[in-house]
Amino acid sequence: MTRTVAAVAIAALTSLGAHAAERATAREAQALFERAVDYMNQNGPERAFAAFNDRQGAFVRKDLYVFVIDDQGVYHASGAAPEALVGLTVLNTTDAAGNPLFREMIERTRVSPEATVRYMWLNRVTNKVEPKVSYVRKVGGYVLGVGYSAPRATADDARAMLDRAVALARTEGHAAAAARFNDRRGDFVKDDLYVFMVNMDSGRFEAMGMNPALSDTDALGLHDAAGHALVAEMIAKLQAADEATVDYVWRNPVTNRVENKRSYVRRDGRSLIGVGHYVE
How buried is residue 75: exposed, middle or buried, by Cβ count under 10 Å (0-12/13-18/19+)? Predict the structure, then answer.
């Protein structure tokens, strides 16, 4: 089966039962993933495969399911459509953007036991191609994964998160707020939405939810993919106003592609707090 035909087959098969499923969250996907890893470690591959392939079992929830491939890219389990997918070789299958997602899963888990892989895939609920995030782990000679669909956030989503972020900074203080903003599993990092905070006097990041390691690094000299000094523009606009909007080009952490982005920023004390969304 060619990789194009395989991709079409997988997309069609995994759309089965779409209208009966609900969209799951990243936390629900993480919880199912950890439970599946524990189950396979404790019960061994064959018993785990049987459990994961049971579409009425404990490892199929909402639009979440467990999948397992080996190092050759052969499916051994898939809660989406086990009758058709188990035994199928998908090593060279690409996603809707042309990325070899299964090969990436195998290669990433050879370097580190656990990884997060982002790609474009058919959502069984909406029957549309959407960004998807899968948690994958090497378990013995296999790669086990659980993925969730990560739809694009809207302008309203970004503004709502910014409202919550500013309120937190004002009630708990900037240091406590920065710690919350930098928590990748917290309330201020959700799919392609995250909070960033910059000290307007020093020009350094106080928080950066997409990459907390950037905290206390220079933000003022940061340029986007088009050479635009985005943070410098944000700070300049906030010298004369309490809030502003800035457009630029930035990498989307969900699709892993450089895309147009619009960020809403507010001044709180001498800190800039912002949240942006990606614009199609």
Answer: buried
